[in-house]
Amino acid sequence: MSTIFSGVQPSGEMTIGNYIGAMRRFVTYQDTHNCLFCVVNQHAITVPQKPDELKQSARKLAALYMAIGIDPKKATIFIQSEVRAHAALAWIMTCLSSMGELERMTQYKDKSQQHGKNETIPAGLFVYPPLMAADILLYQTTHVPVGDDQKQHLELTRDLAARFNARYGETFSIPEPLIAKSGARIMSLQTPTKKMSKSDPNNAATIFLLEDLAKTKKKIMRAQTDSDGIVRFDIENKPGISNLMTLRAALTNETMDTMTAAYDGKGYGDFKKDLAEIITETLAPLQEEHKKLMDDPIVDTVLNEGAEKAHALAEQTLKKVEGKMGLSR
Ligand code: ATP
Ligand code: MG
């Protein structure tokens, strides 16, 4: 059976981009694949985090995995830092990488540019991709469901796996990305040419999964659009309304043409009001389930068992790797 691995960083509040591009798709694989879903808190510390908030966010994200329908009896849910093999294999993947290929990563370029001219750039941002490669390769993963922004990191993961296999003998499965046909890159509500991100300092740009839905509605009503007022999908010239249409299509399966026809003669206001309603209907039950789980000790039981299962699997790969490299007696 093929194996699925994916992770989300507890680097802030989860967004509707994370949900549509990655998380909600996880649920569809749990009946047919070996699945591991990880709270990648070691990725989150590639930029500074407040310890108490990081701890809270990790638990919150684990509860969210469960609230969206991941069944811990079918899939393994765990926290990255609780399985030591991730950091150990990450070092090996770092040594296998070259400066040049890490410098070409657009996430590194984007995130390091967000640091001011006189600020230092954390080295963790630079070696993020080898850690991600380690996460994936430890479990002999065959498929990785991620948003479109992670495609380049996955290419690097494949290169590193193939490089190791060529140098030391067949060891790793080469993982394939699973990227959604639509909704794989939800854009910022305020700068629709930029990806929606949970670490965006502009709160109005992002729909958070667990936020007060009255706030969500306000953000949608204020989302940046253009002045021609026609609901039509055109990413180049109308990125704002096109992004809202993408969001809606991801939640209702409507086609762009159906939406254009339905709003013929109406303005963006009507479209936005209806979109807010659709999002509310999606998020309200999820929020309710999440609230219940946050008070339930089951989350800790699931994380304990998850870490144990993941540890057993990861150690097998790590031992093999270390043996082949001469990191053993
Ligand atoms: P950060 O700003 O801290 O990097 P993020 O919002 O990019 O946070 P990640 O934890 O880095 O979230 O990514 C988790 C998953 O969500 C990944 O699979 C990623 O590809 C996907 N994802 C992130 N942002 C979007 C988006 N705007 N649209 C679709 N998928 C997304
Ligand atoms: Mg990200």
Automatic annotation (TrEMBL):
Pfam families: tRNA-synt_1b (PF00579). A motif ('KMSKS' region) lies at residues 195-199. Its main location: cytoplasm. Belongs to the class-I aminoacyl-tRNA synthetase family. NCBIfam families: trpS. It is found in: Cytoplasm. Its EC number is 6.1.1.2. This is Tryptophan--tRNA ligase. GO terms for molecular function: ATP binding; tryptophan-tRNA ligase activity.
